[in-house]
Amino acid sequence: MKEVIMMRNKRQYVRPLTADQPQAKPVRLSEFDGQRMAVLMRRGHERVVLRGTATFVRDDSVGSTLMIRLDKDEPGHPVFVISEKEWDGRIVPDFHHGCDFCVVVG
How would you classify the pairing of strands 36-43 and 101-104? Predict the structure, then answer.
């Protein structure tokens, strides 16, 4: 059985932009279909990097989602699911983790 984690990252959990940062343009999660993704999160004071491949899924019951199936070395083969309706976080190009993009969680 695969573990599924539903990610929500509403505006109150994302640091506000400062005056010198450019405003990010909204993107559709479908643009990341098939891309290698690094999921960056914190566990206490430690930064955790998980890697996987994204698949965009249209689903009438829950709406459009981006499913990131983590690499097989992660116990239980977890899947991160990002809801297009709910997601208001950051996805940025990856320059450090061997992936195409980074999902920044919290």
Answer: parallel
Per-residue pLDDT of the chain (106 residues; tens, 9 = 90+): 444 444 444 443 334 445 555 555 567 899 999 999 999 988 888 988 999 999 999 888 778 999 999 987 767 778 999 988 888 888 899 999 999 999 988 7
Domain of residue 35 covers 4-8+28-104
Residue 18 lies inside a defined structural domain of this protein: no
Residue 89 within any structural domain of the chain: yes
Written as one string, the DSSP assignment of 62-89 is T--EEEEEE-TTSTT--EEEEETTT--S
> Is residue 17 situated within a structural domain?
no
Any residues with CB less than 8 A from the CB of 53 and at least 6 apart, and which?
34, 35, 36, 37, 68, 69
pTM for the whole structure: 0.71
In a domain, residue 19? The reply is no
How far apart (Å, rounded) are the C-alpha atoms in residues 103 and 68? Answer: 10
